[in-house]
Each structure stands twice: as C-alpha cells, then as structure tokens.
Amino acid sequence: MYNAALRLLVYHGAQRMGSVESADSLQWMPCFDDVGEVKLVCAATPQNRALLRTDARLYNLDTPGIAAIIVSVQLASDTLQMTVRGRFGLDLLSRRVCMGKHTITDAAAGLLQLCRDNLRGLPVSIPQAAGFTAACQEAVDWRDCGSAAVQLAQAGGFGVRVAFDPVTGSESLQLVQGVDRTTPGTENYRGYFSTRMQNLSAVTYTTSTDDYANVVICGGEEPSEGDSFSRYICTVGAVDAAGAARRELWVDGSSVRHKYTEQVNGASVEKSYTEPEYQQALQHYALAALVAHLGSRELKCTAADSPMIFGSDYNLGDRVPVIVEEFGLHATARVARVKIIYEETGRTLCPAFDAFKIEGE
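Structure (tokenized):
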C-alpha cells in the first residue's frame, strides 16, 4: 500500500468526513481549460466504503483550491479493492443546460453571463467580472454549461475552474490567466525545460502541410421559402495568394444563422442580425476555421517536474521556455495539464504542454 505522500481528504457537502486510507494508486489530472479527471484505487475498507460515494468531494493537499467530484465507485470482491473515478469541480456546470442560442464576442464576459443566467439554484458562486477581456466569435447553441465553459475558455485562451474552499466547502467559478515565464532576468522567470536539463524527453518535431490551407471560402445559411436574404459566400485569409501557393478550403457555415436566441432575464428572446452584422459573424467563423489549418509544425514531448517544481516555479496556464538542443529548437509552450501519480514506488508529476510557439516563426 502507498500512502506516505498522499493526503486525500473527503467531503460530504461542506463537511470534512475524513481521509482515504490504504490507497494503492491515485492519478490526479487537473487541466487549465478543460474539466480534468481523477482515478483512485484503494482498499475496500469499511471507512473507505463509507467515505467514497458518488458526489463526494476529493481534496488533494498537493493542489490546493480545487476538488474532484466522485462520479463512479466500483467494488471488486476478488481483490477487495475500490476503483473510484471523478471529475474536477468544473463538471458541476454540466448539470445545467445553457438555454437558447448565443453569439459571444467576449469569451470571458460571455462565459460568466451564460453561467449566471442558467444557474437555476446550482450552488456555485459566479464573479461579477473576469477582470480581463477575451475577444472571440463563438456560437453557443443549446448545450450544457460545462461544455460551453470549456468552449469559451479555449476560444478565449484562458483557464476556467470551479474552486473549492476546504474550510467552508463552498464552490466558486474562477477564470484564470497564466503567467508568462519565458523572459530570462524577469521576476517571473524560473528556468526552462530542455533535453540537456533532463526534464524533457521523447521529443518529436513534425513539419507538415497535409491539411494546410491559407484561404477559406465559407458559405452561410441557405434561405428557406419566404426568407428575404441570399446565401452569403465569403473568402478570407491570403486572398491575394495565387498559383500553387494558394491553398483553398471550403467551410460550411450554415450553422451561423440570421436569427438566434438569447436569454434575457431568464426568458428566451429571438433576435436577428442585420445583413452587415451577419456577414461579419460569418467572416469571423471562417477565420476561426482557417486558424485550425494554419499550423504546419507540431512539437510533442514528455516533461518531468525537476528541477522546476509545479506549484512554485510554474502552474497551469503558465507559458514556459522549451529548448531541444539536438535540433537547435527554441520554443515557448503553455502548461495545459499535469498528471500526478501516487503509487507504491512514490509520487511522480508530469506536465503536458500545448500552444507551442516556435522561435523564428
């Protein structure tokens, strides 16, 4: 059994009930702009069976401020073990439907407003303001609030989580921005990840034009009988590119409609774009599709939590330097998630990166 480094508390509602005992392994995987998940394997003792039930909160002292919600508990008679799976607090928002169709131009403010309008008694406090703006052009159409929160956070480039207060058991939505730790000599710089420092390994660097496009041709909503508009077709990107250098991509933008629904004071209100507004919305939609096909370089790697330490030298959402000396490659990357594993051999932590920016590009 391994539990020397594992300090995992269990809450039922706001009440702390005790700690997990006789844990064999724990995989604790929080994310910056997604829900994240947990897997715990432990002995099926009377104490654990009483503590570990669906909807209980797991609070890991190694990652203060966040808790996981237990979503399934499996008991095995042959091994006398329990396998417990959970998702982090952001999953609470999936219990509410975001009603209506919304066009969001500020991902941060829009996320807060959508959650505020659709709480319907869900005990999660929502801040009055994000403290920053995040320009976007996103359509949120009748989906659960958790999925909408992830969609808008990823579109806006910020993090989202439901924080947990271990003293009161209260939960609150938080929008977070990472820290730029890429400039040597500045207060926030803590070092770098590299193969020479032996905290970076299994690096693959791929250059590809397989799905590359530099021009998007996008068609909007097709008119039905009685509609007064014609289908709008827009072209965005490197519109002056010619010959073999021009790479076109067709995008169906019919999901961007002239009429849409917004929630106003809890009621669904149908609204309509003016034609110039509709054309701008479709152009933004086309540009978002183009961005997904511009990345022709990809860097994958495995990172270790040494000598830079998670929680003190970097955190989720921070941008850090990544250097691959063998290729002469210098880049920066965002810490997208971490995977902390507790087992008999000890505790390991592996950060995972995304949003790579290659120096010179």
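The CA atoms of residues 25 and 62 lie 15 Å apart. The first helix runs from residue 46 to 51.
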